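Q: I'm building a small set of examples for a reading group on sequence design. Run inverse folding on the following structure and report the sequence directly after it, with nothing in between.
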């Protein structure tokens, strides 16, 4: 098992608070203050968890530049005061950045007891199958 450093523990906390603030900001009708704090905490938490060098390598890969520009452009637009447009840009950038990871995450969630049962319902399994790989492949 890999040892977890204190910086990584702090990063998980920061990212968790960032996601919580983003969730509250969306629930409270796109409150720009909560969204801005959530964005900053999430990016700082990600940096603490994986390190500054690996974070910069992840965001500035040649094939991920469009996603990086959309993600950080969305954060900038939220900070400038247009939260709905900024969140749409962020979601687009987040999807472009993490689209390679989505099949892995979906296949992991299929194996979680309650969530996996929910994801195998007839209507939902069709959409989940579009995102993830077929269940028979490992």
């Amino acid at each position: 098992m890999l040892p977890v450093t204190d910086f990584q523990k702090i990063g998980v906390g920061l990212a968790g608070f960032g996601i919580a603030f983003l969730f509250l900001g969306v629930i409270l009708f796109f409150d720009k203050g909560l969204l801005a704090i959530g964005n900053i905490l999430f990016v700082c938490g990600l940096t603490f968890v994986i390190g500054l060098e690996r974070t910069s390598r992840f965001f500035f890969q040649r094939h991920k530049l469009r996603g990086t520009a959309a993600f950080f452009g969305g954060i900038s637009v939220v900070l400038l005061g247009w939260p709905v447009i900024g969140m749409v840009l962020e979601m687009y950038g987040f999807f472009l950045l993490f689209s390679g990871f989505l099949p892995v995450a979906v296949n992991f969630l299929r194996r979680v007891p309650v969530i996996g049962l929910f994801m195998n319902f007839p209507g939902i399994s069709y959409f989940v199958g579009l995102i993830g790989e077929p269940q028979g492949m490992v």
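The mean pLDDT is 91.
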